[in-house]
Amino acid sequence: MIGQIFFSDRGDYQKGFLYADSAFSVLKNDTTLSARQNTGHLYNNIAGDYDKIGDYEKAIENYTASARIFEPMNHSFLASVYGGFALVYEKINESSK
Questions:
Q1: How far apart are CA 54 and CA 36, in angstroms?
Q2: What pLDDT is attached to residue 13?
Q3: Alpha carbon distances (Å) from 10 to 5, 15, 26, 60
Q4: Roughly how many angstroms between the first and final C-alpha of the chain, as a whole number?
Q5: Residue 77, φ and ψ in degrees, nearest 5
Q6: pLDDT tens track for 59-93
Q7: Is the pLDDT of residue 3 over 70?
Q8: CB atoms closer than 10 angstroms to residue 47
Q9: Residues contacting 52, CB < 8 A, separation 6+
Q10: What is the rounded average pLDDT of the residues 1-19?
């Protein structure tokens, strides 16, 4: 996850996506609460990157994946996820969603 953040912060989104894929492959076999939360955060980070490069469809897909992880937990991070959704829908002029 650190690699994804490192490259994303520097604007190298493609390399960030590669690190995210590696993190997903490690996290997918871990069923701990911490791993599920890390997966949710990773989806959220990826969504933000897709938003930055203007791929709003993929941003929404990843925000949705993040929300599906955090909603059953009623996790406080949902506010950030929903905020991300709102920003994307505002950009594509669908603020009613």
A1: 27
A2: 77
A3: 9, 10, 24, 22
A4: 30
A5: -70, -15
A6: 999 999 999 999 999 999 999 999 999 999 999 98
A7: no
A8: 27
A9: 13
A10: 71
